[in-house]
């Protein structure tokens, strides 16, 4: 029996010995120590555990390990090394969009997924893009504003 | 095929059906329902890499939607009917739409399944396969109750067959507790077609109301073959029939609330069609 | 705008956004065990027996018999047990902990433990409770005459529901026991509360207990008292096992057993004479749940706020906090204020209709001004900027015009707009700052001329580290980079008090400013220096007397005016929130972006409280909707147009003119929302949350 699961994690080829039915979230946090991936609910409802899976936004609590064989996973730890992250981070800093910060790594990846598809989103499109990422602190305004700033000041990045 | 502990990953339908015929596995398409209540001893058959389950194509009569197509893929496909896109647009949120699948939505057999409602009203059929062949059945015949379907242990849902004609004139309304990430409290879909002033179809489906999506073909038939004026004259009888037929169950909202919304939307659907 | 108000990047911005910040669940220690707590599944019972399976090597059960000190968590009173003492009083009450290396094994063991109960009839309805935990009351003027001579007396009942904090990071703590010392670290608002509680449960002296706050993923009051309970539990577990023990809840456990906003039932009467309100009489009940926790103080604040922002000459307010067999309720942003403010704001709206005035005109005609007596016979010592706030709100929302236009609508969609005027008293209620907290801060200047601010103040996301650093930097006139602010560790920081009650900036910030001023005067380059500053009670305050419930409960107040506009779909009874506007006076904003973030986030929570946040407790005392898919909080799409503005009204006793801010926006959202629903539906409404089902009931009643 070949138990190992192979995937690319933040640009590096990795393997996991975990059961195929285990949550990607737990593997990222426990085995790879990628604790920027947060757990808020384990039912796909809050988005704190968001990652990019083959380039699209996914809740890592809702992903079983067996399904990611051969896939590409990007967490905030990998994404934070990019220019796009820098643009988003600068914009978030301008609007003080980071309060408790627990939703933020997932939120930033939701913003990335949005901007990758739509580099000049309207307010409504931004709100829709982050609608699966609950934030209890900000009321979302500062985050929406930050996405607009990032889209403007990071022109050409997306 | 790759064998993991607690899971099988296959890249073609034949292998998938072979595993289904030999081993007790839980088919895993998008995972967005299964993983909510992830079982420690679950053995999954991963379907997300099977090309036959991920195609969307059309023939003369039907749009074929592979059971493992994600909501996002269906939404972004130009072949998909607008009524289905509307339902997906109000379904959960982007990350769930990226992973969740139409086939999973159907097989999970929740009466709250947003796309199943559309398949009901659209007269969709399901293509179900096992190693010895296939069967095609109307979606209504697939369900036997909440969480229960006729899918056998050796079978897989392969495609959803959505009729290509007659879905243009529709009505769709989902009622949730909030604007996104909302589980339906009531969902209503209607399709209305006329030819030369005669009603050819007046289909209505009610989601999140009872143990399965509700549709009453016998009641719908009352309007078929009638002119708008004739239908109008029996509108109150038509509504009364539904008043009697719809018996909601209590869930996170009361049965009374569900009933009121169903009847209000039904009446609005008729009114908007001139009845 | 004052120069200090100019926004800067928050101190914790980068670690949090890049995912490198460590929250309690991100920490792991050598030999660490994972604990899970077996909780009561019934609301009221004696425990007859607990059946525990054979435990594998290295797995432990920790219960009341393992507590070296007293089986009691000190909060305000001491009735909360660390682990059940043989009875259980609510569903979710902790009975024992299972701890071991592998969480999966712990979870399996949990399922094998059987608790045998001798069940008793629980009290779930607060109105049927015979146990009154706390009771207070006060009067002003001659309320009896006002009611005796009234032309008309109007009576109404109001009700507010639970609210769950739903901080994104659940409760979590890690306990250690090393060399006779208990160390507890985790997510908490008030390290010294935990310190006091752990000392007592462990039977240790102060210097043998150390409490460290880790990065905190939101709190909103929900981590004010609860960490004292969990802190004691992990401390005892570490003591028994000799290993670090981590307990981090899952979401459903957190919803089941962590404190909530107190549900309230409020009976109001108004005396009307010659078209004027001459007296108010309020009778208030707060559901405390099974143990007292912070209820006395929550109830006090609720009663202080009972007559709102209006100058009633004659009034009586009475209230009690009662026991029920439900989860103990505690602190939640607003701390007792949102309940009574909801009632008085709705009542004023209804009274306006009785008198034949529009609600805003009535409110404006009665709103308090500087120099007026307060309800508790204290004084409003400072300027109250309601006139300018209301004008600003009207400009932003077009309130007056819309309110008029939305009368008597027909058709599928009905619009409505509502408005509320509220305050939040800054700081600990009554004489708490002077008699109980006695805050102390310390500033240390290192030999490299960096300056460290030592307080017990915690940053739960509200930006305290940034605000404190700005206060010190501006006072000392040194660059921000040279100011050090770390998460508090009780071995290093003095007790500046809890991070609660909108007191941190105004009270602790002021102490820091004073200490910084001293350091500046005495600055010795290259030398180590330290300055300690202690709380001084403002001398202008009329002394608070709890037994009479009279005096100044707060030195000053933050004020807000809120408007919410809705559009109701009469077919589905769903409501779209078209707009939400808030105007706030929080003194000088120490950082404008931080303040706006506080106002916007708090306002959205408050709208949730008024509309969708419904916690459903069944007839067995079980919270049914204990998940994120069932306990509904607003998403980014629910209130897309939410605007906030501040008016600047400097408070001289606060640092750079700042005063309390954090809780204020949580107070006025619910009444503004429900008043908007009244405007849309054309009826008087009396409770929150006002749900889709409630709307449907009103619409169906019209049909009949």
Automatic annotation (TrEMBL), chain A:
Top-level taxon in the UniProt lineage: Bacteria
Coiled coil regions, renumbered to chain: none
GO molecular function: 2 iron, 2 sulfur cluster binding; metal ion binding; oxidoreductase activity
Keywords carried by this UniProt record: 2Fe-2S, Iron, Iron-sulfur, Metal-binding, Oxidoreductase
InterPro entries: 2Fe-2S-bd (IPR002888), 2Fe-2S-bd_dom_sf (IPR036884), 2Fe-2S_ferredoxin-like_sf (IPR036010), 2Fe-2S_ferredoxin-type (IPR001041), 2Fe2S_fd_BS (IPR006058), Beta-grasp_dom_sf (IPR012675), Diverse_Oxidoreductases (IPR051452)
Pfam family, one: Fer2_2
Domain 2Fe-2S ferredoxin-type: 3-79
Gene3D superfamilies, sorted: 3.10.20.30, [2Fe-2S]-binding domain (1.10.150.120)
Span of the signal peptide: none
Record's protein name: Aerobic-type carbon monoxide dehydrogenase, small subunit, CoxS/CutS family
Species the sequence originates in: Flexilinea flocculi
Record lineage: Bacteria, Bacillati, Chloroflexota, Anaerolineae, Anaerolineales
UniProtKB/TrEMBL annotation, chain B:
Gene3D superfamilies: 3.30.465.10, CO dehydrogenase flavoprotein, C-terminal domain (3.30.390.50)
Domain FAD-binding PCMH-type: 1-167
GO MF entries: FAD binding; oxidoreductase activity
Highest taxon above the source species: Bacteria
InterPro entries: CO_DH_flav_C, CO_DH_flav_C_dom_sf, Diverse_Substr_Oxidored, FAD-bd_PCMH, FAD-bd_PCMH-like_sf, FAD-bd_PCMH_sub2, Mopterin_DH_FAD-bd
Name of the protein in question: CO/xanthine dehydrogenase, FAD-binding subunit
Organism of this sequence: Flexilinea flocculi
TrEMBL record, chain C:
Annotated keywords: Molybdenum, Oxidoreductase
UniProt key word Oxidoreductase: yes
SUPFAM superfamilies according to UniProt: CO dehydrogenase molybdoprotein N-domain-like, Molybdenum cofactor-binding domain
Pfam families (UniProt xref): Ald_Xan_dh_C (PF01315), MoCoBD_1 (PF02738), MoCoBD_2 (PF20256)
Top-rank lineage group of the source organism: Bacteria
Gene Ontology MF term list: iron ion binding; oxidoreductase activity
Entry-linked SMART domains: Ald_Xan_dh_C (SM01008)
Gene3D superfamilies in the record: Aldehyde oxidase/xanthine dehydrogenase, a/b hammerhead, Aldehyde oxidase/xanthine dehydrogenase, molybdopterin binding domain
Domain Aldehyde oxidase/xanthine dehydrogenase a/b hammerhead: residue ranges: 18-121
InterPro entries, A to Z: Ald_Oxase/Xan_DH_a/b (IPR000674), Ald_Oxase/Xan_DH_a/b_sf (IPR036856), Ald_Oxase/xanthine_DH-like (IPR016208), AldOxase/xan_DH_MoCoBD1 (IPR008274), AldOxase/xan_DH_MoCoBD2 (IPR046867), AldOxase/xan_DH_Mopterin-bd_sf (IPR037165)
Designated name of the protein: CO/xanthine dehydrogenase, Mo-binding subunit
Lineage of source species: Bacteria, Bacillati, Chloroflexota, Anaerolineae, Anaerolineales
